[in-house]
Amino acid sequence: MHHVEEHFESSDLVKDIVIGMSDGLTVPFALAAGLSGAVSSTGIILTAGIAEIIAGSIAMGLGGYLSGKTEIDHYNSELKREYDEVENLPEKEKQEVREILMEYGLSIEASNTVVTELEKDKNKWVDFMMRFELGLEKPEANRATKSAATIALSYIAGGLIPLSPYYFLHEAHTALYYSCGVTVVCLFLFGYFKSKATGQPLFTGALKVTAIGALAAAAAFSIAKLFHVG
User: Fold this and answer.
1) What is the number of other CB atoms lying within 10 angstroms of the CB of residue 48?
2) Whole-angstrom distance, CA of residue 99 vs CA of residue 102
3) What distance in Å separates the CA atoms of residue 223 and residue 230, rounded to the nearest whole number?
4) Which pLDDT does position 227 carry in this prediction?
5) Please, what is the end-to-end C-alpha distance for the chain in angstroms?
6) pLDDT over 50 (residue 65)
7) What is the DSSP letter of 134?
8) Where are the domains of the chain?
């Protein structure tokens, strides 16, 4: 019987969605809850919430772009260094290959055979060093732009969920109850799928994400009530 191993490989896309969605669900939810403790007009809360989503998505997207750009720059810098070392310090690099292979249990004879094959192709030799010495995978060419767009859009999608009741209702406290209900459900579902994507315990992961969002909203609401003037 043919055995098929099932592994979920968490891609950069999934990571970016998780980053954007988690903050998008939590921050506008906390903001709306806090304002609900101070004002009664849903229009004010909706306006402030949309402004926060726009500002937050830009900030998060920019952060994703800079992170992706840094990753690409770091990879290219290390790639250039490895090519220089292979060209100018070949014996040192060969010894490093042997040490890496022997850590995996290969004998010195088998390691020397691999070294002999690798030195025939400098590109493959450098690729081996990048992967197994430095643990670096070549990032996508448009990684920075794609990361920025994914994080920003995920933030917007997450942020609109807790604000949606304030669009349909006119009394802040009533809207807050609906916002809490729909956001807690979404936080739990998001936490569940996030845990599934990252290989974490599903129920525990879902509860952690839900608890963080709920605590942030409760803290914001309580502080707004405590310091509300007028």
Assistant:
1) 18
2) 5
3) 15
4) 66
5) 74
6) yes
7) S
8) 12-70+145-224, 77-133
Question: How much is the average pLDDT of 103-124?
Answer: 81
Distance CA 83, CA 79 (A): 6
Residue 163 confidence (pLDDT): 92
Query: Could you read off the pLDDT of 83-107 as tens digits, one per residue?
Result: 888 888 878 888 888 888 888 777 8
Contacts of 139 (CB under 8 A, 6+ apart): 12, 68, 71, 72, 75
Question: Are 101 and 111 in contact, with CB atoms under 8 Å apart?
Answer: yes
Cα separation, 206 vs 152, in Å, equals 23
- Residue 132 to residues 100, 125, 129, 136, 208: CA-CA distances in angstroms? 7, 11, 5, 8, 35
Q: How many CB atoms lie within 10 A of CB 46?
A: 19
CA gap 121, 170 in Å, rounded: 69
What is the rounded average pLDDT for all residues in the chain?
82
**pTM for this one?**
0.75
Let me know if 202 is exposed, middle or buried by CB neighbors in 10 A (0-12, 13-18, 19+). middle
Q: Is residue 230 predicted with pLDDT exceeding 60?
A: no
Q: Rounding to the nearest 10 degrees, give the CA dihedral for residues 51, 145, 140, 20.
A: 0
∠ CA 33-36-42, nearest 5°, is: 115
> Residue 200: CB partners within 8 Å, gap ≥ 6?
194
